[in-house]
What we know:
Elements: E1 25-26, E2 32-38, H1 46-58, E3 63-66, H2 71-74, H3 84-95, E4 99-103, H4 111-116, H5 143-160, E5 166-170, H6 186-200, H7 203-210, H8 237-265, E6 270-274, H9 283-287, E7 292-297, H10 299-305, H11 311-316, H12 325-336, E8 341-346, H13 364-374, E9 379-382, H14 408-422, H15 425-428, E10 436-439, H16 442-450, H17 459-472, E11 477-480, E12 492-495, H18 503-511, E13 515-518, E14 545-551, E15 557-559, E16 565-574, E17 578-582, E18 588-593, E19 596-599, E20 601-603, H19 605-618, E21 632-636, E22 640-645, E23 651-653, E24 656-658, E25 663-667
Parallel strand pairs: 2-3, 2-9, 3-4, 4-5, 5-6, 6-7, 7-8, 8-9, 10-11, 10-12, 12-13, 13-19
Antiparallel strand pairs: 1-2, 14-16, 15-16, 16-20, 17-18, 18-19, 21-22, 22-25, 23-24
The chain binds beta-D-galactopyranose.
Beta-D-galactopyranose binds near residues 298, 345, 351 and 393.
Amino acid sequence: xHRPDPPPGREAxxxxxxxxxxxxxxxxxxxxxxxGVCYYPEHWPEALWAEDAxxxxxxxxxxxxxxxxxxxxxxxxxxxxxxxxxxxxxxxLGAAGLRVVLGTPTATPPRWMLTRHPDMLPxxxxxxxxxxxxxxxxxxxxxxxxxxxARIVELLARRYxxxxxxxxxxxxxxxxxxxxxxxxxxAALAAFRDWLARRYQNPQALNRAWGNVFWSMEVAGFEEIGxxxxxxxxxxxxxxxxxxxxxxxxxxxxxxxxxxILRRHSDRPIAHNFMGRITDFDHFAVGxxxxxxxxxxxxxxxxxxxxxATEAHxxxxxxxxxxxxxxxxxxxxxxxxxxxxxxxxQQPGPVNWAPWNPAPLPGMARLWAWEAFAHGAEAxxxxxxxxxxxxxxxxxxxLLRPDSAPAPALAEAAQVAAxxxxxxxxxxxxxxxxxxxxxxxxxxxxxxxxxxxxxxxxYFRLVFAFYRALRRLGLNIDILPPDTAxxxxxxxxxxxxxxxxxxxxxxxxxxxxxxxxxxxxTNAKTAxxxxxxxxxxxxxxxxxxxxxxxxxPPGVTHALARGxxxxxxxxxxxxxxxxxxxTAEGWPVLLRGGGMHYLAAWPDEAALLRILGSLLAAAGVAxxxxxxxxxxxxxxxPAHLFAFNYAPEPLSWQGETLPPAxxxxxxx
Length: 668
Ligand code: GAL
């Protein structure tokens, strides 16, 4: 059913700069597929704008995103609005042929806002107020700040909603970034109590649901409930999980308010720029109010700052980024955007915010963009146009240096634009169907943060390990939300670590005619964070009970009889399910009943590659017979096979050599 690809042809090579207007291609309903850049007209003398716009077009850029931090210039004092500069900026950029993405400025409330709403500032877990002087200094739950956001968004939407140069909206900027989803403020407490009252109706129901009889935690009214911080020892995990759900709902509500206003006055698509590895709100829920899921891709920053990896891995991919981290998020945000997604910010050179900030290998600014298009991105916007010599991000590269001379990424962006212009179908193809689906569930990330049971049990880390193994086997992967009700397109479905299987997913698994792999820890909790009885995993067609679990400290592994090992987590199981794999000591770790498989442990990469390889073969999926070399990755679009070399040395694929940072594509 999924056939291997034909042998490679010639490497497609692009021309230089100057691809101009042809560099993007119209996709759905006038949508331009192509490149763009993030630009801050308010940072530069107005006399520069036209020349900047001309140079953007000369490099082949089609999109420009502006405005998302400009509240202090739009409304210098409460109610005193200054639209003139933004009118002229949009006109200048649009007249040059750029399509404008306008951000709502709500991630940066100006200083006067705090005089009006001193209690809108968020508080950290210790209850300390987080101050003014950077950005994201607001509490999602604060009603006064929400009203201010509604007001400014309404004004923007009325003024620009049908502007001919406006192509899309962006709400706010990177919800949750800088650890801002959770706030432990008075505003959050008041809103949490209201949220609990709506969810549980009466305190007795809450007491029962949470098991508050334990340690005499029962309450007589919702006003007696606090936030789950500053307790003497750990709070009730049900209380902690409820707070996580509440905080996620606050982000969704905050975004929904803006999206609803924009839609009243504008027919342009609405996007948000999500971040990498932020799991503390439900992106699928926010995505339902958007037309496009954007995300901000900083491969070198991420490798340095938010990935578990050996020192050898960090050194090897220092200038290229992890070979799977971006791809994972491309697939994730394709799901969040229900097919429509962008890279709203793309790293162009060294950033300023990671512990170490190396420069990308020549060619990587091109490779990252092609990896995104090969995953179906509609647009890739580099962050930012010109490096700002002032303030927090003065050490962050752009496409131009602070003196306006080209930085190295400008020519690479122009090359991608020229390549798209030469063969528009290349970037416009969209995503090809994948033979494997991987469920991603934000609520499971919260559940296992609330109750890791072992310091190394991190949900993202677990799911990402499965993703990496699938990609090393050369596959396209679809990521699914946890309430997916139809699994029939995927011969193999994986749902590791999903704390509570939703009713639709459970029913879909029961109906599924392909194979499924669940565990470890799948379906191990009720929705109220208790152990279900009958005991987990309670999966259709699988006679299996997890009788107890153990977590293992770093360095403790159990070898598998057939190779590889398990680490971090081991479940002791009972039941009549067929044992497919055991540890060398004889503990069952892979069990089966019909097409349903359960992993009772956390396999290392070697074990995962082997186990997934045999499941893929059993599911009739043509995976590679051996994993790809370390750093080589493949991706299929409907019409092409792409290969990417993330390694620092040349690598060969089907007799062809890819230099470091090399990208090749062949018709399929
Ligand atoms: C992003 C953010 C941008 C900029 C960039 C720097 O997280 O959205 O505004 O700060 O990082 O890398």
